[in-house]
Write a structure and sequence with these properties.
This protein is α/β, with parallel strands linked by helices. It is 37% helix and 17% strand.
């Protein structure tokens, strides 16, 4: 069947056949419509198959009295927020954690309980339906999605299908139609966990709040191995996502809501590379941390821009809940304060995955306090806080438990110094901890130290696959050299910036770096060279915008160079400058303090202001187009 001889009906029939092969019951919407002999709905505004939901609640909660089950049913089906995303968030928590109810116990006491909606351990205890042509009428709008998937009577997925052979019918026509459905029949989507769009050639999956950019392909069925490219993409999505156990696993552990401010909720679902990597890492963790395990979990290499931080959060959530880990303690380490803040922020927004709020160590003493706990906890720290205090030859033992997992971000970096440096002190503090590394760049073949601590790769998602999936944009390199000039008169004494650039380095190592760093920073940041770069940047970016819209990030060696480059660029393009954070084309995003030079102060912002600038920069339509940051 080619793209020129199949119809939308053929695509729908194929989708239903693939679902039926996985054990889904197939029903035709009009046959169960109101007024029909086999009716399962009282009216077209009813989107829940109520009889099936009640039966599931009774089946999965045999010890809960009828009144409490009725209360759980009421909570599930009577939504009280005007926001679709807020209702969806509330329902998702019920589906994952259970519906909270209270009832009188046999001894007369009133107690709380959680009513299960799905059985995640035994998928066959749930009822899976696929219904095509399911008509919904709401607020005088009548719509008929192509395929709706139900689990225990709740509509948890919607598929919209188009025929690529029809003019102007594309995968994005299906996407646009779903956006219309969300506006006109929102009640159907309050329970939604996945949206699928396809034109018979391409197929993508996204969440309730995902825009076009985040409707992504799903390229694997079993494990990380890519599915045969000859299989229809829709078949891969259906079999890769909606196989019963896999779909329940995805729903339970791989969906998160992030509050991005202003009451806006963003719902995120793991991509196929994240889903399979985390499950592989979980299996490796249980082996490494168990009796006889070698404490080396492995390394996850997922290229920059592919959601590494979120992958780490999904992984942490899975480890925390695994019974074999017995309420573990997770220690998330980075090598810089700003990275620690960024990663902590991601985990804090994903605290529902962790079933707890993460904690951030503010000092060495605070870290020691956090890690002397008997169990549990997700602790963030920079590796430098494991340095012994004055008078200590080595770091004191904090815990000898085996259910401690150290998660290292960018684990290959030399700053960790796993043989003689900070990581040695970490092993002294946590001798039986297991180690896993996450990195956005590959480990060098000659890097034996990183492998000695972490082990080999668990999962690899390189730039080629990420670009093909649309997870990140292609990288093109154009050499534009601004040569260094070895003029001794331009070399200053030690720049104060050095203290920030070598944050946390051990004293002896720091002293060795001083001269080299000061000289290099001066060579890179000479006035003549900065002016040359500024002229080239201003000209090149203007020409680039004439061809294609976009944004630019400039990475500098030091904060001093950031400020000097800003001055040089705005001297050429004064219209790029604006003192107001909400206006202007060019900004510097960097940290600092009141003791920094006066001409730096306008560029030094607190965390909240930096986050607002980050939101502006990520918004394609925002006029903030050029950002300068320090490496």
């Amino acid at each position: 069947m080619t793209a020129t001889n199949f119809s939308e009906y053929d695509i729908e029939s194929a989708a239903l056949a693939w679902l039926e092969s996985m054990g889904y019951q197939i029903l035709f919407g009009p046959e169960i419509a109101p007024g029909m002999p086999a009716a399962e709905r009282e009216n077209y505004g009813q989107v829940v198959l109520e009889r099936r939901l009640r039966q599931a609640l009774e089946r999965l909660n045999p010890d809960v009295p009828p009144d409490a089950l009725e209360e759980a049913f009421r909570r599930l089906t009577r939504l009280d927020s005007p926001s679709l995303a807020a209702n969806n968030h509330a329902i998702h928590k019920y589906l994952v954690d259970g519906v909270p109810v209270e009832y009188q116990r046999a001894d007369g006491a009133i107690g709380g309980d959680l009513v299960r909606v799905f059985d995640y351990d035994a998928p066959e205890n749930n009822e899976f339906l696929a219904i095509n042509q399911f008509t919904v009428v709401e607020d005088r709008h009548e719509r008929r999605p192509d395929v709706v998937l139900f689990v225990n009577g709740l509509p948890v997925a919607v598929m919209e299908l188009k025929n690529a052979a029809v003019e102007n019918a594309t995968i994005w026509s299906a996407f646009n139609q779903l956006q219309t459905y969300k506006q006109q029949i929102p009640s159907l989507f309050a329970f939604n966990e996945a949206l699928v769009i396809s034109d018979g050639v391409e197929a993508r999956i996204g969440t309730l709040t995902a825009d076009r950019e985040w409707f992504m392909p799903w390229r694997a069925i079993e494990g990380e191995k890519l599915a045969d490219h000859r299989l229809p993409q829709l078949q891969v999505v259906i079999e890769g996502v909606f196989e019963k156990r896999r779909f329940l696993n995805l729903l339970q552990h791989f969906i998160v809501f992030e509050d991005v401010g202003g009451g806006v909720l963003i719902k995120k679902m793991a991509g196929y590379h994240q889903y399979h990597a985390v499950n592989l890492a979980l299996d490796s963790t249980v082996r490494a941390a168990g009796t006889g395990g070698n404490k080396r979990i492995g390394v996850v290499w997922h290229t920059q821009g592919s959601g590494k931080s979120l992958t780490m959060a999904f992984y942490a959530g899975r480890v925390v809940l695994h019974p074999a880990m017995e309420n573990p303690t997770l220690v998330v380490i980075t090598d810089r304060n700003d990275l620690d803040d960024q990663l902590y922020g991601t985990f804090a927004r994903c605290h529902e995955l962790l079933r707890q709020q993460p904690m951030q160590a503010g000092s060495r003493a605070h870290l020691r306090e956090l890690l002397t706990t008997a169990s549990g906890g997700v602790v963030f720290t920079t590796v430098h806080k494991f340095f012994p205090t004055n008078g200590e030859d080595q770091h004191p033992l904090l815990s000898d438990r085996r259910n401690i997992v150290v998660i290292a971000d960018e684990a290959h970096r030399s700053q960790y110094d796993f043989i003689d440096g900070f990581a040695r002190h970490m092993r002294e503090a946590l001798p039986n901890a297991s180690f896993i590394g996450f990195t956005g760049t590959p480990i060098e073949l000659t890097d034996k130290n990183t492998r000695a601590v972490f082990g080999d790769y668990i999962s690899v998602y390189d730039i080629e696959r990420a670009v093909k999936d649309g997870a990140t944009v292609p990288i093109y390199y154009e050499s534009r050299l601004a040569r260094l000039e070895l003029d001794e008169r331009a070399r200053p004494l030690l720049d104060e910036e050095f203290e920030t650039a070598t944050e946390g380095e051990e004293v002896e190592h720091r002293e060795r770096l001083k001269t080299k760093w000061a000289q290099l920073e001066a060579l890179v940041g000479t006035e003549k060279r900065i002016k040359l770069i500024a002229e080239d940047l201003a000209k090149h970016f203007k020409t680039r915008l004439e061809a294609i819209d976009g944004k630019a990030m400039i990475v500098c060696m030091s904060r001093r160079i950031c400020v000097e480059l800003y001055k040089a660029i705005t001297a050429i393009r004064p219209d790029w400058h604006n003192d107001d954070d909400s206006a202007g084309i060019l900004k510097i995003v960097m940290t600092g303090s009141a003791s920094d030079p006066a001409d730096w102060q306008t560029h030094i912002r607190n965390k909240a202001r930096r986050e607002e600038l980050a939101k502006r920069f990520k918004a394609p339509e925002d006029p903030f187009k050029v950002v300068i940051v320090r490496d």
